[in-house]
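Quick one:
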Amino acid sequence: MPINENLVQEIVQEVMAKMQIADAPTGKHGIFKDMNDAVAAAKKAQAEVRNMSMDQREKIITCLRGKIRENAEVFARMGVDETGMGNVGDKILKHQLVADKTPGTEDITTQAWSGDRGLTLIEMGPFGVIGAITPCTNPSETVLCNTIGMLAAGNTVVFNPHPGAIKTTIYAINLVNEASLEAGGPDNIACTVEEPTMETSAVMMKHKDIPLIVATGGPGVVTAVLSSGKRGIGAGAGNPPALVDETADIEKAARDIINGCTFDNNLPCIAEKEVVAVSSIVDELMHYFINENDCYLASEEEQQKLVDVVLKGGRLNRKCVGRDARTLLSMIGVTVPSNIRCIVFEGPKEHPLITTELMMPILGVVRAKDFDDALEQAVWLEHGNRHSAHIHSKNVDRITRYAKAIDTAILVKNGPSYAALGFGGEGYPTFTIASRTGEGLTAAHTFTKSRRCVMSDALCIR
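Output:
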């Protein structure tokens, strides 16, 4: 049952009031003034977590899942209110997805070899205290999803969140620790600082008690983590192309592409950022975009105005990221009906609104001579990020060629991009997709190290 709008605002205001950091060093649950204190608290908590049974860890995770579901709308509204990005409805769905489908302790498994010379086990062990850097695009989603996986593996975590989403992040971290305490676990299984900065990030990355750093963000953040001298998991940028060939169901492809592109105003890094289509079906595809999927066709003059606003001074304008199509068009003096979901146009692959990852519902369509040309242009547009890509085709051989050529962590065939996260598709979700370092969609198993335990000449009972 939907929450009353006024009630939600009252809840948000109450939450913000509660989240004022106390003068005491510990502040609210998991919130500290100093990064060193945050790491120390997480280390103390991890000493308890590592000795917990898997059932005890799962009890905390179950409690946390319930709290995420209960607070899904509050999280969604807090995120939109604080960052100005995305939309409430889709953010509610993302939080529900985190609660329902993020893997827990069932993802921690054991390998075994048994034979004449005994028994050998390969166990997944925790790293200890993990340092994590999170973005403003999916602030609470990333914190909650990561914490479930990291805790399931026996770790605790210290976050250095994006300063533009600190209130939402603090609320998420506080909720994590409340779930732990209610389930009989320790406080401070997730920690952060009240004022995250580049300096606090540096302290975290260099800290002797943090062996693993997980970064979710832009290329600069990931590069910094991979230059830290420590084990790093890097979830960086992408510019996912959607290829459409003449064998595809064009009407369905148009619907799937726009649904994926507009989900949470194109904030997900996996979302369709541009389309490459074979020439023979471009006109039909554009017809379905405009006439059946509420897209606005931008003229060349309007495209240039969008370039000037969206890529102000040659750089991505943060004030445009995660905004809806109507808002973006209003920035260039264009008024459109309330049903308009996406801005579309046709252009060359070098067009600045096509070659740049925008994270907003602007979708350029690149015309290709044939499938070979489309494949070549799509690979170029992905820029070697190896992150995500999409294809709409009924030709299995072409899908196979595309998959091998583009070599991304995620490839969605004949569906919207969000199917990759288990929303309308099989599999589990994550908001840390480690394309650059190769782990792909992270989960509890990602945050473990391999340990071999050997019993020689015993415990084989064949």
